[in-house]
Design a protein that fits this description.
With 496 residues, the protein is of the alpha+beta class. The protein has three domains: 104 residues, Nucleic acid-binding proteins (OB fold (Dihydrolipoamide Acetyltransferase, E2P)), CATH 2.40.50.140; 140 residues, OB fold (Dihydrolipoamide Acetyltransferase, E2P); 137 residues, OB fold (Dihydrolipoamide Acetyltransferase, E2P), CATH 2.40.50. Helices cover 21% and strands 33% of the residues. The protein has 14 helices and 26 strands. Helix 3 packs antiparallel against helix 4. The longest helix is centred in the last third of the chain and has 14 residues. It holds the Pfam family Rep_fac-A_C. InterPro entries: NA-bd_OB-fold (IPR012340), Rep_factor-A_C (IPR013955). This is Replication factor A C-terminal domain-containing protein.
């Protein structure tokens, strides 16, 4: 197909038959013919069971009307081999099903669903020009107004400020292997002169971003992300990618070209940024953490309700990297691949499970490493029973029990590991007293990396939302007790 300079493809054909335009598609069966360009297609899966629901598509007709398409899982094999993004197709016979009420990628009331008698074929020549794409941009104010509604998924374009915490002054280094493992990239994006927004790219969107970013000769500046879901994370607007998300940069499509030109004409905008927006760590409720998984660390203010008994509250870690050490033939060996230190003597490290609550939710937190020392004011090695190993049932020390009723700001780290299986584990990386200023991103980076590694190595940090306690009276008495003794609720021994 010959491509026009305006971004449309023009081809010719003597195709016959009645062609229905997208604007005329209604609900119900149709023995009609559609002609469209396939903008994009993606798998739709159940978010809990991960089972395949079907193949979803974004289609555009000759008048520039966009509609969503759907192929049931049992019919995907029939059509998928001939499907190619950007190609033009003809579809005979379909069903106009009602567009889903949540996470909508098109404004049309109907979805073109493939039925038992649907027939799709590639059109190499038709006397029509089809637009390449169609975007639906929202401003910061629009995203704010539609936050957490789970309705339409709109697009955003802007210039990047940070990529995974790295500035664009020196080109950020993105490790494709590391990102493939973490399945996550976080970008600070500013649209025109609006506030800086956090854009979370997951799975395929993260992989596509990394590939595009690394393939650019010059450091990319402009980013366009389609179909983002708006959420409020700790009181701050956050945009998250979905399965339907695509990413474009600098000169990929006309909107990024236009924005790049605008940015060049407004260099003072590119230099503007609020350091507070970029670097501050948001305080979340426990419910926030459960409802929005993020690789970024966050703060949560909660009251300690209990210390879990019946399991080891510490483990023996490597003296160098603090990862779990196991017994070898003649000595302890570090389990961390990059360390593999032999003949290590080992040192006790905190791995205590506590029950906490706030005004929104109850949960179990796992206190690891230095976070335990910040909570109790004592090193685990001072409290561990040297005559008993951590695998034995070791009594919980008084230093931990005495923390019950105290309220702290917990810096937590939530990753895929925390949400594996049927558990929702929250790992604590740092503990602050209520009057301690929040740390910067850089100040806890090493702690986050170390404790995340320890969590993966030990494999026993399993915690989940705690079950309801005996009754509301008992719960209320504990809350009243915590608030009635403010001195006990605020630890002065926590390190600043």
């Amino acid at each position: 197909m010959a491509m026009k300079r305006n971004g449309k493809a023009h081809v010719s054909s003597d195709s016959e038959g009645r062609v229905m335009l997208f604007k005329d598609v209604s609900l119900g069966p149709h023995a009609a013919q559609l002609r469209f360009r396939l903008i994009h297609f993606w798998e739709a899966r159940n978010p809990i069971k991960k089972t395949l629901i079907g193949l979803e598509m974004l289609l555009i007709d000759e008048q520039g009307t966009v509609i969503q398409g759907f192929i049931p899982p049992g019919r995907i094999r029939k059509y998928l081999p001939d499907m190619k993004q950007g190609s033009v197709y003809q579809l005979d016979n379909f069903f106009g099903s009602k567009n889903k009420p949540v996470y909508r990628v098109a404004d049309h009331i109907a979805t073109v669903s493939f039925t038992w008698n649907s027939e799709m074929s590639v059109l190499h020549e038709v006397p029509i020009s089809f637009d390449e794409d169609r975007f639906r941009f929202h401003s910061y104010e629009d995203f704010e107004a539609n936050c957490d509604l789970k309705g339409y998924l709109y697009d955003v374009v802007g210039h990047m400020k940070l990529v995974n915490g790295q500035t664009l002054i020196g080109r950020p280094i993105l490790d494709e292997v590391e990102i493939a493992t973490s399945r996550h990239i976080m970008v600070h994006l500013q649209s025109h002169d609006g506030p800086v927004m956090k854009v979370y790219l997951w799975d395929q969107a993260a992989a596509d971003f990394c590939k595009k970013f690394n393939s650019c000769a010059n450091t990319p500046t402009v980013l366009l992300v389609t179909t983002v879901n708006t959420k409020r994370l700790g009181g701050t607007l956050a945009l998250a990618s979905m399965s339907s998300t695509r990413v474009f940069m600098d000169y990929d499509v006309q909107p990024t070209k236009d924005y790049f030109t605008w940015l060049g004409s407004n260099p003072e905008i590119a230099k503007q940024v609020s350091a507070e927006v970029v670097t501050k760590r948001e305080t979340l409720t426990i419910a926030d953490i459960f409802s929005y998984m993020t690789q970024e660390s966050a703060k949560c203010t909660a009251t300690i309700d209990d210390v879990v008994h019946g399991s080891a509250w510490y483990y023996i870690g490597c003296t160098v990297c603090h990862s779990k050490a196991t017994k070898g033939a003649t000595s302890l060996i570090c389990t961390k691949t990059r360390c593999e230190k032999v003949n290590t003597t080992g040192v006790a490290q905190y791995r205590a499970k506590i029950s906490v609550y706030d005004n929104s939710e109850q949960a179990f937190f796992v206190i690891l490493g230095d976070a335990g020392r910040e909570l109790t004011g004592r090193h685990a090695s001072e409290l561990a029973n040297k005559n008993e190993g951590p695998d034995h049932e070791v009594p919980v020390p008084e230093a931990l029990i005495s923390t019950i009723g105290q309220t702290h700001k917990f810096c937590v780290k939530v990753t895929d590991h925390n949400f594996s299986g049927n558990t929702r584990a929250i790992t604590v990386t740092k503990i602050l007293s209520l009057d301690t200023p929040p740390p910067t991103e850089a100040s806890v980076e090493n702690t986050i990396a170390a404790t995340s590694e320890e969590t993966m190595q030990t494999g026993n940090e399993v915690c989940e939302p705690s079950k309801s306690r005996g009754g509301s009276t008992n719960e209320e008495s504990k809350r009243t007790s915590a608030s009635a003794d403010p001195e006990k609720s605020k630890r002065q021994r926590c390190e600043k």
